[in-house]
TrEMBL record:
One of its GO terms (cellular component) is cytosol. This is Delta-aminolevulinic acid dehydratase. InterPro entries: ALAD, ALAD_AS, Aldolase_TIM. Pathway: Porphyrin-containing compound metabolism; protoporphyrin-IX biosynthesis; coproporphyrinogen-III from 5-aminolevulinate: step 1/4. The lineage of its organism: Bacteria, Pseudomonadati, Bacteroidota, Flavobacteriia, Flavobacteriales.
Length: 328
């Protein structure tokens, strides 16, 4: 034998010397769920160890994240049922929960990069990301509201808006409205390759935002989110979003879509984020609870694999936990 690959694996010193991918807290963005009220830290049933916070406790959480080296949060709000309609009225309320959450985080920690979810589903009485008419999720009227929503988040102080709706043309509409209102420095992180995935279930529990089961309401999001069978389409979607003005593009979910991450890494030259979604979190929790998997090892292996595939950073419910593991 002229080549023996095991030489480079002899001990941890040589392994660390030749290691190709590393995760650090710099790579993590923490999604946060916000609710009305005060003193609330409410565990999400299908996401053990993950919580919804009221604004007062959100501040502590953000400070703890920062102290662990996590420099960005992705905000989601749980909207009260009585505020939901078919037009996203509450989404553009300048004093809405999201707008107050943005201010709360920026007042507590101005350096924390605040990104905000832009989509109508938490605000929709039907649990869809856009306006519905005659059983159809309308594109252009939804884009109009989504652009106003993005502006409203920028006005509240968001650093980046993160449209997760998958309507066509929304990035251009958002970039335009932000420019017209002089928010030149407000960025856009586009969920550009977002798949119609069954892994979003626990998230929809967290926000009570699942599509409702009713006549003339689409049962799923397949007319706007991507078909899990498709690969070329992810490149097409992502290149279009970059043309329209996206600063950062995203692949979502993570683990099942790492081929897409690598395709994008080879085809685009803007930062790529990967969303390790709620179902990916819950699967690990459930298996670990049964004693079937080594929780910490699996968490770090998955985050490392996402990084190796080509992610520049990862939105993950393990952000805080993994940052603590890395401190040890
Ligand atoms: N547009 C809403 C949105 N933004 C992020 C997620 C899922 C995130 C997760 O599962 O962790 C969803 C759910 C959906 O599209 O139905
Ligand atoms: Mg698109």
């Amino acid at each position: 034998m002229l080549k023996r690959n095991r030489r480079l694996r002899t001990n941890e010193a040589i392994r660390s010397l030749v290691r190709e991918s590393l995760v650090t807290p710099d790579d993590f963005q923490a999604p946060l769920f916000v609710v009305e009220g005060s003193g609330i830290k409410q565990e999400i049933a299908s996401m053990p160890g993950y919580y919804r916070y009221s604004l007062d406790l959100l501040k502590n959480e953000v400070q703890e994240l920062w102290s662990l080296g996590i420099k960005s949060v992705l905000l989601f709000v749980k909207v009260e049922a009585k505020l939901k309609d078919n037009r996203g009225t509450e989404a553009i309320n300048p004093n809405g929960l999201m707008q107050r959450a943005i201010k709360a985080v920026k007042e507590t920690l101005p350096e924390m990069i605040v990104m905000t979810d832009v989509a109508l589903d938490p605000y929709s009485e039907f649990g869809h990301d856009g306006i519905i008419e005659n059983g159809e999720v309308l594109n252009d009227p939804s884009v109009e509201v989504l652009a106003k929503m993005a502006l409203s988040h920028a006005e509240a102080g968001a650093d980046f808006v993160a449209p997760s709706d998958m309507m066509d043309g929304r990035i251009l509409a958002m970039r335009n409205i932000l420019e017209q209102n002089s928010f030149f420095n407000t960025g856009i992180m586009s969920y550009s390759a977002k798949y119609a995935s069954a892994f979003y279930g626990p998230f929809r529990d967290a926000l009570d935002s699942a599509p409702v089961d009713a006549q003339d309401i689409p049962k799923d999001k397949k007319t706007y989110q991507m078909d899990p069978s498709n690969r070329d389409e992810a490149i097409r979607e992502t290149l279009m979003d970059i043309d329209e003005g996206a600063d950062i593009v995203m692949v979502k979910p993570g683990l099942c879509y790492l081929d897409i991450v690598r395709d994008l890494k080879n085809n685009v030259n803007v930062p790529i984020s990967v969303y390790q979604v709620s179902g990916e979190y819950s699967m690990i929790k459930a298996a670990a609870e049964k004693g079937w998997l080594d929780h910490d090892a699996v968490v770090m292996e998955q985050l490392t694999a996402i990084k190796r595939a080509g992610a520049d950073f990862i939105s993950t419910y393990f952000a805080k936990y993994a940052a603590k593991l890395l401190q040890r």
